[in-house]
Amino acid sequence: MDFSLTGDQREIQGLTRELAQAEIEPNAAAWDRERRFPVELYGKLAELGLMGVCVPEELGGAGADFLSYILVLEELSRADAGVGVTVAVHTSACTLPILAFGTDEQRERFVPPLARGEKIGAFALTETGSGSDAGALRTTAVPDGEGWRISGTKQFISTAEQASTFVFFARTDLETDGARGVSAFILDREHVEVTREEEKLGLNSSSTGELRIETHVDRDRLLHEEGKGFMVAMRTLDGGRIGIAAQALGIAQAAYDVAREYAKERRTFGKAIAEHQAIQFKLADMSTEIDAARLLVYRAAWLKEQGEPHTEAGAKAKLFASEMATRQTSAAIQILGGYGYTKEFPVERYYRDAKITEIYEGTSEIQRLVIARSILELQREPAVPA
């Protein structure tokens, strides 16, 4: 059993960390305060191949493995979780499903601009009445001549305003309720209208919007087979959860780093607070849980890269890492005391950013359901919503 990273993986990790420290960390507080999406940053990420890390080179990507991509998300999120989620959705939820389920023509047409960072991708599944119950969506796609007439609305869509390519889900069988009858499509920016931008607790350097769709697309925009869209969504989320787990891991690591350094410098009762057992125990718990989460996340990424089943492993990684991040960012604030509650230190931002990792790409409750059905070998009918 080998727990060490390869030379290529360490190089990608180091490259990302260097960029994050130089270009993201110094600006993250301002982006959060101004609620600004740093458009200029993504060109720099693209130059380094970080917008298509695990996409084959012949399709414009860096050709690295999935764990390398997870390392990138962890390092980006350590600096700014809003940047991390933008790259995660762009890659896991848009580029990779087109790569996995698209026709040769679709892959050659849509993947290279995404992998090269010329376009940003988004994933449009959630609606007002269908979050965890993803099979309950009401957006429709009706055959119309040589294509489809798509009508409906979408909610909580990450990078809605900046995206040029959307993996989009609509009901094509209007007579059937639930997961059956849902199909996936590839839409362009011109096909959707952003009607609202959400104001959020955290992740303020990323955007989240509401979409309205009333458009006609040709038949070549259907992704995979008609009626198989729910399967596309669930398979996409299986891998996407590992990316969000990496995001949570990066947030927790950042909070621990600040708390540890503060504890070594801050003095009370004549000594550094790191010498007080109460603080030592908090830091010990933080370090232990971060290490445990990292092992779960990397194992899930390795399983996916090997082509092994990874639904359960990804759900465990996301469940543990996301709840761990919420605990450890709270602990970091406690260690910093009053300073932790102010914007002078970044731990309050980490705390706000961490909470969403327990919600999107499937809530913690959904992850427990996925895990329980897997370990009890319960039949999915027809698939676990997320």
Give the key terms.
globular; Butyryl-CoA Dehydrogenase, subunit A, domain 2; 4-stranded mixed sheet; 386 residues; 10 helices; 10 strands; Butyryl-CoA Dehydrogenase, subunit A, domain 3; 51% helix; 3 domains; 4-stranded antiparallel sheet; disordered C terminus
How would you summarize this macromolecular structure in one to three sentences?
By secondary structure, this protein is of the alpha+beta class.
What does this structure look like?
- It is a single chain.
- Helix 4 runs antiparallel to helix 6 (229-265), helix 6 (229-265) runs parallel beside helix 8 and helix 8 runs antiparallel to helix 10 (364-375).
- Mean pLDDT is 95; it is low at 381-386.
- The chain has ten helices and ten strands.
- The protein has helices spanning 7-34, 39-47, 66-79, 81-101, 104-115, 229-265, 277-305, 311-336, 347-355, 364-375; strands spanning 121-124, 140-144, 147-158, 165-171, 182-188, 192-197, 208-218, 222-223, 267-268, 271-272.
- Helices cover 51% and strands 15% of the residues.
- It has 386 residues and is of the alpha+beta class.
- It folds into three domains: 7-119, Butyryl-Coa Dehydrogenase, subunit A, domain 1 (Orthogonal Bundle); 122-229, Butyryl-CoA Dehydrogenase, subunit A, domain 2 (Beta Barrel); 231-375, Up-down Bundle (Butyryl-CoA Dehydrogenase, subunit A, domain 3).
Secondary-structure topology with pairs:
Layout: H1 7-34, H2 39-47, H3 66-79, H4 81-101, H5 104-115, E1 121-124, E2 140-144, E3 147-158, E4 165-171, E5 182-188, E6 192-197, E7 208-218, E8 222-223, H6 229-265, E9 267-268, E10 271-272, H7 277-305, H8 311-336, H9 347-355, H10 364-375
Parallel strand pairs: 1-4
Antiparallel strand pairs: 2-3, 3-7, 4-5, 5-8, 6-7, 9-10
Helix pairs in contact: 1-3, 3-4, 3-6, 4-5, 4-6, 6-7, 6-8, 6-9, 7-8, 8-9, 8-10
